[in-house]
Amino acid sequence: MTIDEVLALRHPDGHRWSPDGSRLAFLWHEGGANQLWVADVASGELKRCSEGTATVSDFDWRPGSDTLVYAQGDDIWVLEPGRGPRRITETPGREGLPRWSPDGSLVAFVREGGIWLWRPADGYTRALELPGRVAPDAHAPGYRWSPDGKAIAFAFIDGERRDLGVVCLETGRTVWRTRTDDPETHFVWLDGRRLYFTVTRDTNRRRDHYLMDLGPLLEHSRARVHEPGPAWPQPRLVHVEEERKGLLFAVEPQVSPAGDAVLLVLGHSGWDHLYVLDVASGALRQLTDGECEDVGHAYDLPRWSPDGRRVLFASNRTDPGHRQLWTVDAASGALTQLTDEPGTSATGIWSPDGRHIAYAYCGPYDPADLWLMEADGSAKRQLTRSLPATWTREKMIAPEHVTFASAGGWEIHGYLYRPPDLEPGRRYPALVWVHGGPIRQMRDGWHPMHSYAIFHAFTQYLCHRGYVSLCVNFRGGIGYGRAFEQGTYLSMAVDDAWDVVNAGRYLKSLPYVDPERVGVWGISYGGYMTLAVLTKHPDEFRVGVNLAGIWDEKLWVEWAERHYRNAAAYFVARLGGREEERPEVWHNASPRHWVHQMKAPLINLHGTRDEAVPFNQLDAIVKDCVEHGKTFETHYYPDEPHVFVSPKTWRDAFGKIERAFDRHLKGAG
Question: What is the per-residue pLDDT for 231?
């Protein structure tokens, strides 16, 4: 296996049906960029639609048509049947998030934080009048058309405030906005006048669900701005989530086709399950149950069938490390399992007529690809093939699920990868791989998220280079229930760090692992865990590789409360409140306070355009390591984000990581 094969891996994402259900559009990641592809459902023929090398960030089908609008580079493009791509904007400004109006007469898009409209009939463009800059969230869109096309709801930044607003298309002016001190997150239209939205309060320990009737405001929309007050309708509180240890990020609510119910993913029972909220009565009904999680991953959504009778969702009810697709009858609660292949089946989407389902599947031997099946789970067939042709099944290394005990007697899960053809009597170097999040989960084989598919591929490569690897699902991650996910409460970089240490000790107990040659590495929260174990448990690992990890928790929270507010609230909740409330917990959460203990060499890699962990964390690492005379390396990559994009960057980074492991682990033998 070669690095070329690792970097040649493709990854499909964001699939959407054409309005007539004959085609499926999707983004296919290859060579550091997404390109827009379309699959003919009947023939299986695949066709690339976008041109050039710039990445495609988003796209949308025109209602009732085969025309596509998409954002590529910093411009908006249109692709009509029988014609090549046509650029409809060409300005110095950055443009993205294109969406057709419900009747297909307009395209909305975001330009430098403002919402603009383009009319294909004559090419006319205009800007809407907004009170702030549109603020898309990692788990929520920046704006949504109302079903009648007469208004747009949008999330925006106004100074230090993240609010929700509604703009009337007739006047181009904002007719309503929230003014809360807490961030509004998900918002969806029920119909042309009713908006459902949530507000996360008390540093992520409470989430309020609201229903707002905007009819009177839209009917009187010629007034410039209608401030909320006693003379106008007020949002109606319909549900409250509360959790003193902090709530998980919300899954986007799904409105029933009739607009009379909202489908929610809630953890009220200690596990993430489906609930239906009746809009008229406010009654909440649990639809699924059991000791399992009924969601695939952070970007996986349950989906109503077009007739509103069933809900399609992913669940790990058959195995904690797997995800299968299921349907549940919305009236009776009867469950039907649609897939049973080992691994992850998720992101299922109904065809417009409800007869077919498109979904993504990956498993022990298969990276993520798009598949089709009948609505009853029959006639499955693969649409895309993302694995390089030279990467044969014989080269693939399937993992073994393992468990081990950790702090507090907790059982921790992981996936063990062995080099092919283990030699009897030989002791191999070994690695603990630590995922990010922390609300992620490594799976039985390939991962459905592109970032972890890259690391899975490199883990396979390292196995072929003679390394044993254990991918640990430490406490704080998903897949094992709410209590497990909340396992970092008041113990960030403490109990979760013990899980990583005990993963290393598990490796050392294996007869084919050299206990003197075990290293640790990870990205984001996994980099944070790498830093924590190297400083707090200095005798456990021979080397550590940190990709964009947190060194100083207080410094990160100060930054995140300005730039990454929802994540900051999640971390503050896990820390039990503000620093003045829990000084010891905050102190324990920063690896830098133990830098004087660090013994193993530390290798750091970080992009200068990191949107999740700012580059000043690397500055602090360098400052402290120099101050205390520690052995370390730093490698920074200009303009790279949190997860690197350029294949050339990955080639360089993987080369540096492999050489560090060889130097400190193989050389030690």
Answer: 60
